[in-house]
Specification:
With 344 residues, the protein is α/β, with parallel strands linked by helices. It has 10 helices and 14 strands.
């Protein structure tokens, strides 16, 4: 990899997209600053949001477009915080300009887009990664501890689910063409959690979708995300994974992820977990709070990778794996058949 840095402060970071949603532009720059990197520039077409960035980070360079920032700025690491369907084209523009790239999740919408980004990064000798900060959520840290201890035995299946009964919001995440679909937001996190637990190659993916119920009440009309998306992933080990994200469930399931093993089950939500194991005829239930999340480890790892050559935790190939599943599930739902993976 080219562009190795002597120290973290030499990494001049630029944020692409400083929109108001979740204050993500500010949070990314703050987290990179904590990791020792230097906030350097912001590219944002909205002049009001650009002014906010200049106020929150005095002295930071501001640009109205990505093209202008790449042409005029010394930024050497860019973070893409824009709608999902723009991740790939913006990333390719930056990678071809020789900049390291971090993309907000999802890395892209299709497998082909991920492939193009990986190829461009290799050709330019730069890094591309996805901001999978939830790789270090307290919930998955606890889940890994429980599974590796053998407390619930061998994993048989993982059921990941999220949602409730309710109309999608009137913003771009509710547009199928912009967001990729209902599975592409939280579904990426749920898959990333699950793939940490399931150490096996993928055998096939089946997808199912229900659309039309909310479309008539959404500003996106026919382009509204699905009412519900469902995927089944079969692994070569014999284990399987289900993923469901819904807007039509009147009785939402408990927790977000449930892991069933040969000796017991483990489930968790944002804050809590519950372990149930069988001892002869008796069920032993242990409940607790998830440990503190360690999101700062993401940018600490990126800085260590760019400065010291430390292994990158969230590689582009790792980032591509959940996207490949979602891409296959989307195609499967349209074609009505299970699909074999290109990447296992």
């Amino acid at each position: 990899m080219k562009n190795r840095f002597k120290q973290a402060k030499d990494i001049k970071v630029g944020v692409i997209g400083y929109g108001g949603a979740f204050n993500m532009g500010k949070l990314h720059l703050q987290d990179m600053l904590k990791a020792g990197m230097t906030p350097w520039a912001v590219a944002e077409p909205d002049a009001v949001r650009l002014a906010v960035a200049a106020k929150e980070f005095p002295g930071i360079q501001t640009y109205a477009s990505v093209t202008e920032m790449l042409a005029k700025s010394e930024v050497n690491l860019v973070v893409i915080i824009t709608p999902h369907n723009t991740h790939a084209p913006i990333a390719l523009q930056c990678l071809r300009a020789g900049r390291h790239v971090v993309s907000e999740k999802p890395l892209a919408i299709t497998t082909a887009e991920c492939d193009a980004m990986i190829a461009a990064a290799r050709k330019a000798g730069v890094m591309v990664s996805t901001f999978h900060n939830r790789h270090w959520d307290g919930s998955i840290v606890k889940a890994l501890e429980v599974v590796r201890s053998g407390a619930i035995g061998d994993i048989v299946r993982i059921e990941a689910h999220m949602g409730q009964w309710g109309k999608p919001g009137d913003w771009w995440r509710s547009s199928k063409s912009i967001s990729g679909g209902i599975l592409y937001d939280w579904g990426v996190h749920l898959l990333e959690y699950s793939l940490q637990l399931l150490d096996s190659e993928i055998a096939e993916v089946s997808g199912f979708a229900k659309s039309g119920f909310w479309a008539g009440q959404s500003k996106w009309g026919a382009d509204t995300i699905e009412d519900e998306g469902f995927a089944v992933v079969r692994f070569k080990s014999g284990t399987w994974l289900t993923l469901c994200v819904t807007g039509i469930d009147a009785s939402p399931k408990r927790g977000m992820v449930e892991v069933t093993g040969t000796k017991g089950t483990f489930w968790w939500d944002y804050d809590n977990y519950e372990i149930t194991v069988r001892d002869s005829e008796k069920a032993i239930v242990t409940k607790g709070r998830n440990p503190t999340s360690l999101w700062e480890k993401y940018y600490e790892n990126v800085a260590a990778h760019l400065v010291k050559g430390a292994p990158l935790t969230i590689t582009p190939e790792w980032s591509r794996r959940p996207i490949h599943i979602l891409d296959l599930a989307d195609r499967s739902a349209r074609e009505g058949r299970a699909l074999k993976p290109k990447y296992v």
